[in-house]
C-alpha cells in the first residue's frame, strides 16, 4: 500500500502540479485514504482512474486536502502585538507598506489586516492575499462569514464594516477593495517581492522540514530590508538565523541579512 501511495501522489503531481510529497506523509496519507474510502474506493489506482479525466472531481479532491480553517483575528494576543508594536514600527520606517497574506484561505486574515489599518487611519498599505485553493479565494472575494468567525472583531469595527445578512455577515466593499486576491502555490510559484510584512500562519505545520526550509528561504527573498514574517502559534522557527531572520517577539521574525 505504501508504494501505491507514492505512485498515486506522483500521478497527482503530474495532473495538478501539486507535490504532495512535500506535505507531512503521515497526516496526508491518512486524509487521502479517509477521503478515498468515503467515495467508495479501497485502492489508490481505482480512485485515480475515477478522477483523472474529470476536473470537477480533481478540484473536489484538492479542496478537501487544503486546510481552510481560519477566523478573524485568530489568536488575538498576537494581533494585539501586530497592531501596537509591529505595524507602528514599520510605518515609522517606510513611506508605504506592502503586506502579503500568503495562505489566506477564505479571506479572514487579510481582511483582519485591512481592518487594523482602518482602525489606525493608515491608508498607504497594499494588501496581497494568496492561496492555492481557488474555491476558497472565491469565497474570500465574496466576504461573507458566519458570526462565529467574526467573534474576535471589536464591536465598533463590526458595526462599521460588516452588514448582517440573516445568519451571516458580509464585510463592506470599503474593506474588500483594500485586498487583492490571487492564486499562488507556496511550493512552486514565485513569491512577490518588496514585501514589508508577510503573514504565514497555521500552514507550515503541514509541510515537511525540507519544504519549510525552502519556503523560509523564499520568504527571506520576498521581504524588503527589515521586513517582518508573522507565523502561527505552533510554528516558531528553530535557529531562525539560518534563514536570515532574527526573532523580535514570539511568532514575529525580522529579516536581518
User: How many strands?
Assistant: 10
Radius of gyration: 19 Å
Strand content: 15-25%
With strands numbered from the N-terminus, the spatial order across the biggest sheet is 6-2-1-7-8-10-9
- Secondary-structure-derived class: alpha/beta
The main sheet comes to: 7 strands, mixed
Alpha-carbon distance between the two ends: 45 Å
Can you lay out the helices and strands and say which pair or pack?
Blueprint: H1 2-16, H2 25-38, H3 44-51, H4 55-65, H5 76-93, E1 97-101, H6 108-119, E2 125-131, H7 134-142, E3 144-146, H8 155-161, E4 162-165, E5 168-171, H9 173-176, E6 179-183, E7 195-200, H10 209-222, E8 223-231, E9 245-249, E10 252-255
Key features?
single chain, 257 residues, alpha/beta, seven-stranded mixed beta sheet, three-stranded antiparallel beta sheet, 44% helix, 20% strand
Structure characterization notes:
The protein is an alpha/beta fold and 257 residues long. Helices cover 44% and strands 20% of the residues. It is built from 10 helices and 10 strands. It has a 7-stranded mixed β-sheet. Strands 3-5-4 form a 3-stranded antiparallel β-sheet. The chain is globular and about 55 Å long. 34% of the residues are buried.
Amino acid at each position: 500500500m505504501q508504494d501505491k501511495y507514492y505512485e498515486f501522489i506522483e500521478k497527482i503531481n503530474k495532473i495538478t502540479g501539486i507535490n504532495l510529497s512535500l506535505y507531512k506523509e503521515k497526516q496526508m496519507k491518512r486524509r487521502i485514504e479517509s477521503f478515498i474510502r468515503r467515495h467508495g474506493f479501497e485502492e489508490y489506482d481505482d480512485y485515480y482512474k475515477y478522477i483523472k479525466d474529470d476536473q470537477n472531481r480533481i478540484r473536489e479532491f484538492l479542496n478537501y486536502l487544503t486546510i481552510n480553517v481560519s477566523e478573524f483575528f485568530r489568536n488575538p494576543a498576537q494581533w494585539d502585538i501586530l497592531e501596537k508594536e509591529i505595524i507602528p514600527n514599520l510605518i515609522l520606517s517606510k513611506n508605504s507598506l506592502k503586506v502579503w497574506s500568503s495562505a489566506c484561505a477564505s479571506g479572514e486574515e487579510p481582511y483582519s489586516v485591512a481592518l487594523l489599518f482602518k482602525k489606525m487611519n493608515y491608508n498607504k498599505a497594499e494588501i496581497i492575499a494568496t492561496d492555492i485553493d481557488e474555491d476558497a479565494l472565491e469565497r474570500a472575494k465574496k466576504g461573507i462569514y458566519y458570526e462565529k468567525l467574526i467573534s474576535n472583531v471589536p464591536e465598533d469595527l463590526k458595526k462599521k464594516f460588516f452588514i448582517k445578512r440573516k445568519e451571516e455577515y458580509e464585510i463592506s466593499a470599503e474593506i474588500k477593495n483594500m485586498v487583492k486576491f490571487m492564486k499562488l502555490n507556496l511550493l512552486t510559484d514565485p513569491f512577490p517581492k518588496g514585501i514589508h510584512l508577510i503573514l504565514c500562519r497555521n500552514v507550515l505545520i503541514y509541510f515537511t522540514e525540507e519544504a519549510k526550509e525552502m519556503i523560509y528561504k523564499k520568504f527571506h527573498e520576498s521581504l524588503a530590508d527589515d521586513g517582518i514574517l508573522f507565523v502561527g502559534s505552533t510554528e516558531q522557527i528553530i535557529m531562525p538565523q539560518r534563514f536570515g531572520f532574527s526573532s523580535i517577539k514570539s511568532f514575529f521574525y525580522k529579516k536581518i541579512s
